[in-house]
Amino acid sequence: MMESFSVKPVKVGICGLGTVGGGTYNVLKRNAGEIARRAGRGIEVAQIAARRPNSRCDTSGTPVTADVFAVVNNPEVDIVIELIGGYTVAREVVMQAIENGKHVVTANKALIAVHGNEIFARARDKGVIVAFEAAVAGGIPVIKAIREGLSANRINWLAGIINGTGNFILSEMREKGRAFADVLKEAQALGYAEADPTFDVEGIDAAHKLTILASIAFGIPLQFDKAYTEGITRLTSADVTYAEALGYRIKHLGVARRTDKGIELRVHPTLIPADRLIANVNGVMNAVMVNGDAAGSTLYYGAGAGMEPTASSVVADLVDVVRAMTTDPENRVPHLAFQPDELSDHPILPIAQCESAYYLRVQAKDHPGVLAQVASILSERGINIESVMQKEAEEHDGLVPMILLTHRVAEQRMDDAIAALEALDDVAGQVMRIRVEQLA
Predict the structure, then answer these.
(1) Interatomic CA distance for residues 157 and 142, integer angstroms
(2) What percentage of the chain carries pLDDT values higher than 90?
(3) Can you say whether residue 317 is alpha, beta or left, with left for phi > 0 and alpha for psi between -120 and 50 degrees?
(4) Which residues of the chain are in CATH 3.40.50.720 domains?
């Protein structure tokens, strides 16, 4: 089949043969004919850099080295696929590949979120492409959808479940009433969570991906350091149950919204109405909802990680690069969707200036009049209560859980209200706050 392409094949170097690297190699081998028909030329893996072999792929016949820079500096290689992860070596690999005039495909969200502005500027100077579809939401082509499919739209907001580990934990907590720590252990045993799960459960991984999505949605530079992140470690199975009783599901959501004052960029546990499609995305699956002025709301759903789903995005990028290699660099799809000299300096809002509705859980002593005190503290600060749910006193400590849903308000006002609530003699411990998004 391949012989019918008169143009000589494009030579690719794969750096990293872990889960995604192995999957990429397998997909390239298995679908070689189909890929060549789409790309217009054959694509061959000329060299692989790997610290150790991957039992899930047979690389016999392809040169393998332990030195990643051997691949980057190999004159045979036209495109470098960076799948080693992290910030340090990966950054050197990508920058060196660009210096050598090679195109780059990467699945590295941390690298793009933190160093992307510098990487894209250098790539532009050298006339090469850096493609990163696989950096966000695994096999879901959401970057391509926003950057190309929705290019007619002014994007108003996007919201995503973009970390499978966190979503698996919350799904288990909801479906089986299990405690956070217990489910986290299982997620580690299943290989969904790392030995150090901080990036997943504290929202850092999701914030990397959200930073990239916000940049291509709104035409702003990548600003990971301004993203607000809050993890799921404080959530209790009681909160999950109360949310359900109120008609909501709790999801660890990344939200980016355009407002007149600036752009909201935040990752945190969020109550979403249970009948929204995105509220029903469970287990390790990912979903991103994008709202544009012309298209309305669109939803992208699929596997957010894994060997072949992520490889699907890597190879799709590879096909894009092969198709665009012969084009004038000025006429390519811009890295961040908007022409580089047209990026906006619309600021990222600090969380205190962001607006949302809230779920509050107040642990109150079983005294008359506490609810009236709570209500007056909120109303003094212009915070309207939408609904209140009072539970029976808990047997072990005699405290009454009071659940409140509020209307939308600036976070700063809510901070003041919570400080006043926690100062009440009849309120024990910290007030639990979870933001609420309707996503209508």
Answers:
(1) 14
(2) 85
(3) alpha
(4) 2-139+308-342
Classify domain 142-303 at the CATH class level. alpha beta
- In the sheet that holds 64-65, the strands lie side by side as 64-65, 43-49, 10-15, 79-82, 103-106, 130-131
Amino acid in position 418? I
Q: Identify the CATH assignment for 354-436 out of 3.40.50.1580, 3.30.70.260, 3.30.530.20, 3.90.1010.10.
A: 3.30.70.260
CATH 3.40.50.720 fits 2-139+308-342, yes or no: yes
Concerning whether 226 is annotated as a catalytic residue, the answer is no
Cβ atoms of residues 239 and 205 within 8 Å = no
- Tokens 């679908």 appear where? 31
Give whole-number Cα distances, 178 to 279, 282, 367, 395, 433, in Å.
Answer: 19, 15, 31, 20, 20
Among residues 102, 109, 209, 226, the one annotated as catalytic is 209
Q: Where along the chain do the CATH 3.30.70.260 domains lie?
A: 354-436
Q: At what angle do helices 19-30 and 32-39 cross, to 10 degrees?
A: 80
Q: How far apart are CA 91 and CA 52, in angstroms?
A: 21
Q: What is the pLDDT of residues 263-308, one digit of tens each?
A: 999 999 999 999 999 999 999 999 999 999 999 999 999 998 888 9
Return the amino acid letter for 176: K
